[in-house]
Amino acid sequence: MKKRFEVGFVVVIATILVLWLVISFYKAYAPKPQTIQGQIQAKQYSVSSKLAGRVGSVLVKRGDMVKKGDLVFTILSPEVEAKLTQAKAGYEAAKAIAEETHKGARVESIISARDIYNSAKAMRELTEKTYKRIEELYQNGVASLQRKDEAYTAYQNAKFSENTAYQQYKIALDGATKETKEAATQKEIAAAGQLSEVEAYIEDMQAFSPADGEVANILLSEGELSPSGFPVVMVVDNKDAWLRLSVQEEYLPSFSVGSEFSAYIPALNKQVSFKVRYVAVMGDFATWRATSTSKGYDLKSFEIEAVPLENNGEFRVGMSAVVTLPSK
User: Which entry of 57, 160, 169, 322 is 20 to 30 Å from 196 by CA?
Assistant: First the structure.
């Protein structure tokens, strides 16, 4: 009886050992689910100014929520303000010259030119009458040839003076030529363009948020020199977030454009559904993986972008996401 018990005990132990070995080998060599890790990305905006200068004031702090059009920071640039004064003065001067050119001569100038013309005309009439009288006296033998020539010369000079005075009077009436007026107009337009350009730079002394979002970073502080176009404040729109994955091409069938999958977000401690919107091959460097020699080819990595089906703004840039694929 005792011997039979010992034999049964050994059989049970052997059976348990065999089962343990079978289960252990199964777990060791059974296909395991593939885990892929990605990160949450979001739309980021660089708030900058095309005007170089010192940062006057930064009106936000990291973590602040801003609306589109909110004032974020200002730039100090005395040089641009001086150029604005110059541009305004240049425009006013060009405008005044254009107005004067189109308006014509002053009334006083026109009256003066008219009086000079009338005076020259009267002198011409007088010398003409004098010449005719001397001519008659010369024909009658009373006046000499010398006297006649002097009277004729005076008459001719009076005619030329009258014509000159008339042309000056006509110029005063007509004003500037068509070409001069056009040149004055174009100079006024050019001065207005220069003024508008400087005013545009003046407006850019204030930088506004281009979208709703959260202030993610502030790269320059008050008083620091900001080059043209340098991002002073970074704004991130967490409502425009997506998941970025790097997937080997053997798993691409699970991530076709438009397909949906679930990912675990440790920071939120929940599963989130995503929809694939973009698939593209990554760069050649460090994206190839050799397979076994029996397969005879290498695998390339692809970039996957997927948007959450629901987003209430709880995502943050850099959050990890874990995607579990079924074993093959």
Answer: 57
